[in-house]
Amino acid sequence: MELPKSSLLNVARGAGVLACLSGGYGFLFMLGAFGPVSCWTTQTATESASGKSTTVVTRGCEAGIDYLFGSTGGNAPVLFGWAMVLIGLVAFGGAAAWLGYRHIIWATVAIGTSISILGMLSIGWFFVLPTLCLLIAAVALTVQARRESTGRRPTAI
To answer: Membrane-spanning regions, if any (predicted)?
Structure first.
C-alpha cells in the first residue's frame, strides 16, 4: 500500500479548512448559538413623595442574533457586525487557501492580525485562531512558490 505524497498545497488546504471551522465557531458564538454573549445590569433609584427611595435593578443578556430580531440596545449590533466580518474573512481566506491564491491569503492574514491586536480585550480573540491557520496556509503556499521558482527540491532523508 502506497501512501499519498504530502504536498504544501494539501497543508494549505488543511489549514484553510481549520480556519473556516474555527471562524465558524466564533461566528456562531458571537451570534449566540451557545448562549448569551453580552450581559448588562442597570440600577435606577426612584424617590417617592414620602422620602423613601427604591432601587430598581434591571438585567439583560443578548447576542448578535438579537440585532436581527429587533433589539436596538446594548451590544447586539456590534456583535452582529463583527460576526459578519469574521465569517467573511475566513470564507474568503479559506477559499483562497483551497485554490492556492497566496497573495489573497496574506491579505486576510494582515486584516485578521490587525483586528486581533486592536480588539484584544473584546472581539479580537475570535480572530486569533483563524488568523493563525491562515498564516500557516500562506507560509505553506509561499514556500511552495519559492521551490517552484528556483527549482530546488527538498533533499530526501
So the answer is: 12-34, 79-99, 127-145
d(CA 132, CA 1): 34
85 three-class SS: helix
From CA 117, how far away is CA 144, in angstroms rounded? 29
Q: Is residue 1 part of a domain?
A: no
| pLDDT at residue 50, as a whole number | 75
Domain count, the chain: 1
Burial 5-44 (b: 16+ CB within 10 A, else e): eeebbebbbbbbebbbebbbbbbbbbbbeeeebbeeeeee
pTM score? 0.80
Question: What pLDDT is attached to residue 95?
Answer: 96
Residue 55 pLDDT: 81
Q: What is the per-residue pLDDT for 73?
A: 65
Give domain status of residue 154, yes or no.
Answer: no
Low-confidence stretches of the chain (pLDDT < 50) are none
Query: Please, is 77 exposed, middle or buried when counting C-beta atoms within 10 Å of its C-beta (0-12, 13-18, 19+)?
Result: middle
Would you say residue 138 lies in a domain?
yes
Asked if residue 136 belongs to a domain, the reply is yes
